């Protein structure tokens, strides 16, 4: 699937800067080759686990980075390395997330760096919070709701 670049300038710019080779078009993959993966497999699984009960959302890979996306190609989540995740969130939800303390990757616009592991809270509560944030990002990024 080709990534819709029209409503995602911050993500498109960021992923093109991070890519090992400048892609002509951004396309998703179901699974990249292991040597092309830009995220630890445990974090890829953590990102994928957030999709429970989010209808139509999928995890795919763009330039080796795992992303969460709508069926129409809008990206609402991305992860990299061993401890970095960002979600596309509305202003009102930004105070509710736990920001990462492991460094940011300066993905601008309405993208917020979040702590994917939430080590300071019980595991079940951390998973529930992360799922809630991803659901909010999915709703916010929905083409029917979001505005350019």
Give short descriptive properties of this protein.
alpha+beta, globular, 148 residues, five-stranded antiparallel β-sheet
On the 0 to 100 scale, the average pLDDT is: 87
So what's the overall shape? Answer: globular
How many DSSP helices? 3
- Looking at the chains present, what oligomeric state does this protein adopt? single chain
- Unreliable stretches: none
N-to-C SSE string, H for helix and E for strand: HHEEEEEH
Q: How many E strands?
A: 5
Separation, N- and C-terminal Cα atoms: 21 Å
Q: Whole-number radius of gyration?
A: 14 Å
Proportion in β-strands: 15-25%
Strand order of the largest sheet: 1-2-3-4-5
- Main β-sheet description: 5 strands, antiparallel
Counting helices, strands and paired strands, the structural category is alpha+beta
Q: Could you give the topology of this structure?
A:
Blueprint: H1 9-18, H2 41-49, E1 58-62, E2 65-69, E3 75-80, E4 84-88, E5 111-114, H3 123-141
Antiparallel strand pairs: 1-2, 2-3, 3-4, 4-5
């Amino acid at each position: 699937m080709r990534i819709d670049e029209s409503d995602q300038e911050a993500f498109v710019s960021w992923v093109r800067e991070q890519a090992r080779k400048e892609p002509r078009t951004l396309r998703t993959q179901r699974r990249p080759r292991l040597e092309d993966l830009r995220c630890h497999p445990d974090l890829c699984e953590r990102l994928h686990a957030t999709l429970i009960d989010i209808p139509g959302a999928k995890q795919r890979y763009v330039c080796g980075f795992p992303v969460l996306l709508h069926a129409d190609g809008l990206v609402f989540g991305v992860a990299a390395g061993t401890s970095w995740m960002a979600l596309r969130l509305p202003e009102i939800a930004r105070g509710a997330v736990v920001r990462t303390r492991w460094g940011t990757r300066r993905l601008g616009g309405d993208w917020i760096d979040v702590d994917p592991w939430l080590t300071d809270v019980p595991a079940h509560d951390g998973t529930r919070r992360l799922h809630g944030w991803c659901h909010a990002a999915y709703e916010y990024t929905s083409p029917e709701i979001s505005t350019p």
